[in-house]
Amino acid sequence: MHDPAFAALPQPPYYSVIFSSCRATVADGYERTAARMLELAAQQPGYLGVESARDAEGFGITVSYWASLEAISAWKAQAEHQLAQQAGQRRWYAHYELRIARVERAYGAAD
Amino acid sequence: MHDPAFAALPQPPYYSVIFSSCRATVADGYERTAARMLELAAQQPGYLGVESARDAEGFGITVSYWASLEAISAWKAQAEHQLAQQAGQRRWYAHYELRIARVERAYGAAD
């Protein structure tokens, strides 16, 4: 049984975008936009999956997985996503860090 | 001001270990061991930093950052960490996935 919190990914190599963020107190429109971005990302060429966790203090990590650097660039440049990035930077995040990394090895275990 | 939830990292390239996990219901000893592993990791050669978030449903992502693949291998092989990995697999995690990735680009913003 596939746990939907985990991304079902191919064998490496592939790419990851590690987005760490601390939420600001202003939240208007955030949840709706975040859900919309997940929906849009999943429609992008080269999208492989996403995993996300946010704690009660507002610190979160979202890792999205992509087939190539080109796929990540295309998603970054997507028009509606550009608007969301601007709103995120201006209003929703007090601080964020984004790291693009090439996944070289992967393994896991489930009961 | 440095927000302690975020790792203070050098310029890329460096390496990341993306550990996604879903906690099991059994929790004896988990918190203490998790804190001890953070303490031990920070003493390892090549350790750069860590970021971690876990949501209310028990799904979490911890990303640790390292100077090299050799540093990651040495940490994986560390004796006390080996015991913790075994307990994690047997008791504390219902499911986990671990991905080793080379960070190639990084940027961020803070208010």
Tell me about this structure.
The structure is a homodimer of 111-residue chains. With 111 residues, chain A is an alpha+beta fold. Chain A has one domain: Alpha-Beta Plaits, CATH 3.30.70.100. Chain A has three helices and four strands, in the order E-H-E-E-H-H-E. Chain A has a four-stranded antiparallel sheet with strand order 2-3-1-4. In chain A, a hairpin with a 4-residue loop joins strand 2 and strand 3. In chain A, helix 1 packs antiparallel against helix 3. Chain A is globular. The N and C termini of chain A lie close together (10 Å). The mean pLDDT of chain A is 94. At the A-B interface, strand 1, strand 2, strand 3 and strand 4 of A face strand 1, strand 2, strand 3 and strand 4 of B. Strand 4 of chain A pairs antiparallel with strand 4 of chain B, so a sheet runs across the interface.
- How many strands of chain A? 4
Number of helices of chain A: 3
Distance between the termini of chain A: 10 Å
Supply the CATH architecture of chain A: 2-Layer Sandwich
Query: What is the mean pLDDT of chain A?
Result: 94
The secondary structure category of chain A is alpha+beta
Task: Determine Rg of chain A (CA atoms, Å).
Answer: 14 Å
CATH topology of chain A: Alpha-Beta Plaits
Largest interface: A-B, 41 and 41 residues
CATH class of chain A: Alpha Beta
**Tell me, what's the shape of chain A?**
globular
Helix content of chain A: 25-40%
Beta-strand proportion of chain A: 35-45%
Number of domains of chain A: 1
